[in-house]
Amino acid sequence: MAKPSTTYDQVIRRTPTMPRTSATRQRLALPPARRFAILTCMDARLDPAKYAGLAEGDAHVIRNAGGRASDDAIRSLVISHKLLGTQEWFVIHHSDCGMQLFTGEIIGDLLEDNLETAQFDGKAWSNPKHGGGSIAGHFVHWHTFADNAKSVTEDVQRIRSHPLVPSGIPIYGFIYDVKTGKLNEVAEATAAGKARA
Known about the structure:
By secondary structure, the protein is α/β, with parallel strands linked by helices. Helices cover 31% and strands 16% of the residues.
């Protein structure tokens, strides 16, 4: 077995102390206390607890590349409501998103050539190594986008129109500005996500 990385050691070292740092953790209920869910990007610059004022146990936070309304994200939102009682949902994308830096064709071609980490020079992606790739990347829907506000609106519309999403749940659309830390509402998205009687 390979020697664990420094990151592995740091994560494992932190884990045993966490339960002892908060007596309230043991009293947290399974359903989120504030009864809402956030769908957002996995970008490491985003901290939903900070930008949404969350404490542990307050809300469900569903993350993926781009904060997109993929089938799996919608599955999580449906479970969040149906079994755990969330009553409002937020779709929050962000400025300077990496999903705007490539297309499905670009990542498919990169993966077909090689599976190692690619490099971006500010204009184009390239593989430092070649060979050992797979064509499977051409058959994945990567959910890339060029227009941030449009992608938020599309995601809210996709969630709103899903047959397993109750019409009474309001769905709000926002873009988080990574430079200012502000949440900016996408009015068209929030209008599309308006609860219906």
